[in-house]
Design brief:
It is a single chain. By secondary structure, the protein is α/β, with parallel strands linked by helices. The chain has a single domain, classed as Rossmann fold. Helices cover 34% and strands 16% of the residues. The protein contains 5 helices and 6 strands, in the order βαβαβααβαββ. The strands form 2 sheets. It has a 4-stranded parallel beta sheet with strand order 3-2-1-4, sandwiched between helices. It has a two-stranded antiparallel ribbon with strand order 5-6. β5 and β6 form a beta hairpin. α1 packs parallel to α2. It is globular, with a radius of gyration of 18 Å.
Length: 182
């Protein structure tokens, strides 16, 4: 379907796997626009390069590159404070990691939702995951895996959305935020 007939959507595109999947879905289903936020993270240059490459690959032409100095100024994360060492992945454990950036997704969503309003977009995509739920789901899915047939569950299509609504929930001690359009 030509982009001119598709509804607008904004995708937060860090350049990582989760946001790349979201961008792919957004570009498939909508006339997508991408927001990339640099916030002084250690991986800033590589993430920006990946974001640009993903936009090129998915033919997302409307791009907004934002610089947010607030998260670096707030500190408290090994991603934004060079005095806090980044531990090896196997040393992270199940507690909130030192690489967690406090309330980062809320900052990102504020920009994305603002731009979505300007563009007339009715959807905002964000690739935020909850590590504990992902680990539990992977263990449940693959923990006792043996070769053989696997039943693939089917899910009903979600109800059609009307209007613009954003529900934002930030749970205490959560490594990520959840955005549920409804």
């Amino acid at each position: 379907m030509p982009a001119s007939f598709k509804s607008r959507a904004v995708v937060l595109l860090s350049g990582g796997m989760d946001s790349a999947v979201c961008a792919s879905i957004a570009a498939r289903d909508h006339d997508a626009a991408a927001v990339h936020v640099s916030y002084g993270q250690r991986t800033e240059q590589r993430e920006r390069q990946s974001s640009i490459a993903i936009c090129r690959r998915l033919q997302i032409h409307d791009r907004l590159m934002i610089r947010n100095e607030a998260l670096r100024a707030v500190g408290g994360s090994a991603l934004t404070d060079s005095s806090i060492p980044v531990p090896a992945a196997e040393m992270l454990g199940r507690d909130v990691p030192v690489t967690y950036v406090p309330f980062r997704n809320a900052h990102f969503l504020a920009v994305a939702v603002s731009w979505a309003e300007v563009l007339g977009a009715h959807r905002v995509y964000i690739g935020a995951v909850e590590p504990d739920k992902m680990i539990a789901a992977a263990e449940k899915a693959f923990g006792g895996w043996t070769k053989g047939d696997v039943a693939v569950p089917s899910f009903p299509a979600p109800p059609a959305l009307t209007g613009r609504h954003v529900y934002f929930v930030q749970r205490a001690n959560s490594g990520s935020a959840i955005l549920t359009p409804g």
